[in-house]
Fold this protein.
Amino acid sequence: MQLRVRALETVLTEKGYIDPAALDLIIEAYETKVGPHNGARVVARAWSNPAFKQALLEDGSKAVRTMGHESRVGDHLVAVENTPQLHNMVVCTLCSCYPWEVLGLPPVWYKSAPYRSRAVKDPRGVLADFGVKLPKETQIRVWDSTAETRFLVLPMRPTGTESWSEERLASLVTRDCMIGTGLPKTP
Amino acid sequence: MDGIHDMGGMDGFGKVTPEANEPPFHEPWEGRVLAMQRALGYAGTWQIDMSRAAQERLPPQTYLGVSYYTRWELAMESNVIERGFAGADEIAAGHALRAGKPIKRKLTADVVQQGMTRGSFYRQAQAPARFKPGDRVRTRNIHPATHTRLPRYARGHVGVVERQHGCHAFPDAVATDKGDDPQWLYTVVFDARELWGPDADPTLKVSIDAFEPYLEPA
């Protein structure tokens, strides 16, 4: 594939469509700057600040833009809240749609057939693959990202974190708990 | 199209197997593919719906058998060739043999941030919204041979409109070069038993984001 990709990149560059130096910067941004740490900051702020949480649930894009990120957030971000009665999980059965502006690039498992096929029919089985077991009464809501709306799960704040700073709270927020296939770390 | 990509509800693919400490790219060429995709999008060569459609048209064995970024690369090559941006002969040669087509703009180092922010998919409404949150709707039993974002598992089922997301460019039209044809977009939620039968998990609800042409009143 390396040779094939290099051939394509050379042709597109010589045609004047792309600039390899810009490609280098994009790659660097995805390797070092755009990642789940952005989403973790959003979650930590929502946990700490009720007004921000309300704003986030009303208009995810607008609320996240007030935080200022390395990667600007476009439109169409929707935050969905876990409660003791309800657990949310996000999938794209048709391809790999993912809130990459706040979570970075999706992991291979998110883009692969086992997750894409089973999340909408057997989410408890999928959670078991991640070592997560929810109470049998918990309602589960799976969001299939079939259009350009992108979903970010707002997990429940772990107990025993009263008076923690946002930075410390963010350290509990894993990528998987913002997709819905995991839970935050506990203190 | 009723292709292999439309896999919601399919059985037999096995367990989800997360990789610990997975890097963003497993090989450098994967990063080049992603970056080219972003750069071509910025240049206005074609829209993301055409990229998805080209992936969906890969033969099923190819689609399932190759890695994610290989799928994107193959789809990108087919769009480059079919839309006249380069010839198959040039790609085989690994060099341009002719001048390129004019493009709207080029992603250069100074505007990389813009190339990494998704543009808006909002478009001007063509008519008032037909549905509102709380409405019961039935998804239509459509089977277009071309790109659609109504998955097979969610066709012909009754759900409830939960949210309305304004008017967006309509993928079914965009991917077939018919223009944006803006349509109202709704989150529609289904009970799992409606989708998967009476033995389904009674605690489960599944939603899709459905464009208005996919829906009729229930």
About this structure: Chain B has two domains: 28-116, 136-217. The mean pLDDT of chain B is 96. Residues 136-217 of chain B form a domain with the SH3 type barrels. fold (CATH 2.30.30.50). DSSP finds eight helices and five strands in chain B.
